[in-house]
Specification:
The complex is a heterodimer of chains A (250) and B (231). Chain A has helices at 10-19, 21-42, 64-82, 85-97, 103-111, 115-125, 146-161, 165-168, 191-215, 223-229, and strands at 46-55, 126-129, 136-143, 175-179, 185-187, 234-239. Chain A has 250 residues and is an alpha+beta fold. Chain A folds into 2 domains: 12-42 and 190-220, no CATH class; 46-187, 2-Layer Sandwich (Bacterial polysaccharide co-polymerase-like). In chain A, α1 crosses α9 (191-215) and α4 (85-97) crosses α7 (146-161). The longest helix of chain A is centred in the C-terminal third of the chain and has 25 residues, at 191-215. With 231 residues, chain B is an alpha/beta fold. Chain B has one domain: Rossmann fold, CATH 3.40.50.300. Chain B contains 8 helices and 9 strands. Chain B has helices at residues 22-37, 57-70, 87-90, 99-103, 109-112, 131-136, 138-150, 188-200, and strands at 13-16, 45-49, 75-79, 113-116, 119-122, 153-157, 176-182, 205-213, 226-229. Chain B has a 7-stranded mixed sheet with strand order 4-5-3-6-2-7-8, sandwiched between helices. Chain B has a two-stranded antiparallel ribbon with strand order 1-9. The chains are: A alpha+beta (250), B alpha/beta (231).
Chain lengths: 250, 231
Amino acid sequence: MNQEKDGLTLIDIWRIIKKNILIIIISTVIATAAAIVYAFVMVSPKYQANGSVLIDTSSKKETGTDSIIAGLRYVPTLNDYLYEEKFLTEVADDLTNKGFYDTDYIAKLKENNRFPTLLNSLKSNLSISNTENSLIVKIYFSSTEGEFAQAAVQSIINKITTISADEYELLSGVIKEASSASGYYSVNNGRTTYILIGFAGGLFIGLAIAFIKELTNNDIHSSNDVEKIVDAKVLGVIPDFENKKGEKDE
Amino acid sequence: MNKYGSTKSNKKAYLVEDLSSIYSEAYQTIQVNIDLSSIDKPVKVFAITSPNPSEGKTTTACNLANLYAKQGKKVIIIDLDLRRSDVHRVLNVENRNGIVDYCSKKATLEEVIKSHDNLNIITAGKSTIFPNVIFKSKSLENLILQFREEYDYIILDTPPVLLVSDVLLLGQVVDGVIDVASIGNTKKSELIKSVKLLKDANVNVLGVVVTHDKLKKSYYYSKYQYSQKNH
């Protein structure tokens, strides 16, 4: 007796999909609908603001081409410094003073040693970019509150452009404001991604249900099934009889 | 009512009358494959069984027999499904005297053989509470031996092999057994088990006939007529 041969042919796969197309469609529609609801109801809108600073090394007595080359050397340092905990702490304090953070709340975080969590949140919403060989560094900040994003960008610009020699001599006097914080604007909060994930997930679940259902189905579906499972020749295939009333035969 | 208890469906057997129909073509294919299944020793006597009831073995047996008869062959069909005999209904003959009556010497051979359009038929006849006694009887064995000399084909409609073991007793008297599987009704495990049972009993399995294949309407390229026979 033959063991059932491994593997599905393309025809088998197509047959399974065709037979269970309703399950697949329903699953996909439900998951996509759920993802749409989640994306538009549960996921908060996201806003962003931006500003930019200029690296100007003329105060360091660098001029001309030397000034540009020297300035380019400051870019990586600036990028790294903006993410430093010490710097972000100053930004957080500034935002607290402006009323964006509750003073007591910040005090409690510091007391419970959970202030780094807030700093990490600032870090994760902050992004820096600059074009190669450019002395202008763009600062972006994202938040679910547009005004906060705008205030955060301006705070960062204010702090970095007024850094003292005691704080960081290398960067002191080198960073100038190129453009202040822009008004905040909406950005993609991942809704499209959620919807696509919902669609793909629903499709996958539908297909999984279809294939599990069919592969665990013990019924014979065609003469091919017979040839796969028994060591006996298929002598012939008789079509289903139907009489005029549509009744089936033995 | 039948002695197997409840069956999966209350389906009906059909006798194909139009020799140009796709059904007739399908049975002719089976005929050719039966002949090809054993080239050394021609197949004259074969039994038809299935894993379960209502999977198409009586329809297959009657239509093969009918087709052989229409082709001018000398053929006889014997209904050995003694618990649920249907051949007499499909072929529209009386069931008054049959193989049970012959084997128990209550009727002569002439009394039990009936005719339908050049096809000779022995129905089940009187019901019996010991069907396997008929299968083991010398009368049946000798009868089949006698028919080998007189007929081109002897077709035996037998009970479902997974329900009763009668057909396993025919291994020595038949040239082979055809197992019938129904799409959408027969489980794979049931077909595997039925073929295994037959082979373990040293029965020559000629092959499998697959029934109830659902074709698309576009495949029906010719008109056909059929008669509906009720159980």
